[in-house]
Amino acid sequence: MAVWETNCKLDNVNIQWYEKSNNNKINRSNNLEPLEIDNSHYVYKGIIGPITTNGHYEYEIIHSLDTKIISSDFQFFPSVPGDSNLTYPIQIVGFADNQYGLSVFNRLVQSASQRTSPNFIIHAGDGVQEYNNLQQWQTDFYDPLTNYDLAQHAPIIYAHGNHDFDPRQLYVYTTDTPWYSLTIANTRWIVLDSNIDDIDQDIWLSNELSSPETKNKDFKIVIVHIPPYMEFWDPIAWHEKKEKHWGEFVRTRFAPLFREHGVDLVISGHQHNYQRGQFNNTVYTIIGGAGGELDFDRVEDWSFYNIVRQTHHYILIELWSDKIIWKAYNLEGSIIDSFELGKGS
């Protein structure tokens, strides 16, 4: 899905796409109607696809008499076992909790853009401080990602946080669904919403983890904003304001499903620092250091996090045919943690 905003309503807007080889045909959507937020904010969303073959694609946003608004390109990686055309590594950059930290987020995005041209971006939530502040979505989130030429080419896999949670569930600038899944080559990605304590999400997660689309993949990865196991937070907020109970169902109901179905990796934000550890054969990571004020006060001890880095950071994931390589970088571009996951490890 491509998302863009204009300051006025445009006529006959659609999105078209084609593979950049073999003179493949141009596919075009129907005319798109915007969501009118106010008289100067019109948000358009267009589906690119279905796409079934691995390749490099170009997309263009068109209005009226074939006037091009913008164009860009991306690469698609289907789940095709033994596909000889699949190019590894598939590179993914990850951020979380950049809210109210624009200068830091800018530096991290710049560093990531100099290191790689990612195929995907993951964001584990709290991209803005106030979900209904339109300026923050522009200046604090999308500007850095587009100024350094990332968001135009790489789909964003977004898990909603507590600050960007929309109780109306309209999600103007991100995904339309609170929980969803997708396949990237030999990996299955499951995105959950730690804001919504709803049995429907439990049922969906159980069915997803039991599905052939998930069971047959080499790696199962979950993204959820609030970690099942947190250790650092503001002590007064944690104890007196009862914020320790936020998203508690992620630990009490979701984590047992992770264990039962052999989830390999869980990626979270919310806590503003970096942690990694392994519990019940699942690697748990917290990457909430993309700009928000850092958390230094320990409020719990789960005894399995062997890596703690109290610094701002981003992550780079490389997907290979037989392994996942993970690296975390600080503001200076130095590696603060790295590990590998192999098939069956």
TrEMBL record:
Q: Which domain of life is it from?
A: Eukaryota
The Calcineurin-like phosphoesterase domain sits at 92-274
Q: Where is the secretion signal located?
A: none
InterPro entries registered for this protein in UniProt? Calcineurin-like_PHP, Metallo-depent_PP-like, PAPs-like
Sorted alphabetically, the keyword list is:
Signal
Q: Name one GO molecular function term.
A: acid phosphatase activity
Q: Provide the protein name.
A: Metallo-dependent phosphatase-like protein
